[in-house]
């Protein structure tokens, strides 16, 4: 059974909720590439900051907290930048 309507689906515009969701997408698409690029290179550079902290030792609580915070940032950067420069 088909529903014959005098209007085709293309002539019906998106609802206001759909229009609101789609309004910000060009901005998101334009920022995705630079964000992946930056995340990729942050993930590459952060281990060079981890090494001096590890050589100093993690006995001091502030050094340990800094190391763990940098490690968390590195994990997030790895996740965000994993798709950089893939065809």
UniProtKB/TrEMBL annotation:
The keyword Transmembrane helix applies. The chain crosses the membrane at residues 35-55, 61-81. InterPro entries: DUF8028. It comes from the Archaea. Residues 1-25 are annotated as: Disordered. Residues 1-14 have a biased composition (Polar residues). Keywords: Membrane, Transmembrane, Transmembrane helix. This is Uncharacterized protein.
